[in-house]
Design brief:
Blueprint lengths: L1 E4 L2 E5 L5 H14 L11 H4 L1 H4 L6 E7 L2 E11 L5 E9 L8 H15 L4 E6 L4 H9 L3 E2 L10 E6 L1
Parallel strand pairs: 5-6
Antiparallel strand pairs: 1-2, 2-3, 3-4, 4-5, 6-8, 7-8
Amino acid sequence: MNSYYQDFLIRNWQKSDRTKAAAVISYVLSEYGLGWEPKGADRDVLEVEECYLATGGEFWVIEHQSQIVGTGAYYPITRGEKAVEIRKMYLLASVRGLGLGKYLLQQLEAAIASRGFQQIWIETASVLVEAVKLYENNGYQAATGVETPRCDRVYVKYL
């Protein structure tokens, strides 16, 4: 992945991004009163190679003026048929409201579809109001079976 939205670069994760990407996610979680869970729900951010790259997924970072301001990722899952889960879609507050989240979601969906997947699952928390609105406005349907303890919503979209 190497794509531009305005002056934001969306690119593939590199090993040197590990700490900065984790810091962005941790910061956004804390902004909404959610905890950073390096041994739980956020272990995948610290183990991108094993959790995403080795399983057929992708992990992207969003840069603005050479600083990481967001992340987005997906990996195959066994829930459903030919399914993936979009994960770690976080943007710093300073870059929200610019259409970047919608663009990122569209790019993730296009990459997922091009690989032949048929279902996209997303888990989120109600307090992430902007994320909930984004998913609901882009064709994601409420589902059941939340698996991540800090999440209380799960959505699915059929491609």
